[in-house]
Amino acid sequence: MIMRSEHDIFIKNDQNRVYFSFKLRNIIRAAITAALAHEGYVGRAEVSVTITDDEEIHILNNEYRGVDRATDVLSFPLDEADELGKGGENDVLGDIVISLERAQAQAQEYGHSLEREVAFLTVHSVLHLLGYDHMSEAEETEMFDRQREILDEMRIRR
């Protein structure tokens, strides 16, 4: 089943270490759509998602954040958050990069499915694209509450 979206969502698999199924592709689309709807986003958004491995995300994390290790997900917002979702033309929200290798390891570590982990990472990243952050305890609480609400709306459980 291919899920249709009112948004332009581009997904590219750039790794071959973990099988990237159509189900995972659809979960990413659903998570982006659900996060935007939950946040009251109006208009048509454009999001690009690259699926990669630990080696490549390590390079990106070091290059763009100065952090010399692999991570699970990176977000690269392209527009100012306060200008997004006003309706009308497409908003190019930005790029999401997910290490499927790291997502699989975390799913095993946390005792849930790869699908749930990918949905969580995608929602987390979309919230970053919309301007949310978790630099303070209050911001972290707000962001994680929103993530939980969105995953609940998607009926994705642990």
Summarize the topology.
Blueprint: E1 8-13, H1 22-38, E2 45-52, H2 54-65, E3 73-77, E4 91-99, H3 100-110, H4 114-129, H5 137-153
Helix pairs in contact: 1-4, 1-5, 3-4, 4-5
Describe this structure in words.
The protein has helices at residues 22-38, 54-65, 100-110, 114-129, 137-153; strands at 8-13, 45-52, 73-77, 91-99. It is an alpha/beta fold. The protein is globular, with a radius of gyration of 15 Å.
Question: Which keywords apply here?
Answer:
single chain, 158 residues, alpha/beta, Collagenase (Catalytic Domain), 18% strand, globular
Q: Can you tell me the CATH topology? A: Collagenase (Catalytic Domain)
State the helix count: 5
> Strand portion, in percent?
15-25%
- Amount of helix: 40-55%
Tell me about the biggest sheet? 4 strands, mixed
Q: In the CATH hierarchy, what is the architecture at level 2?
A: 3-Layer(aba) Sandwich
CATH class: Alpha Beta
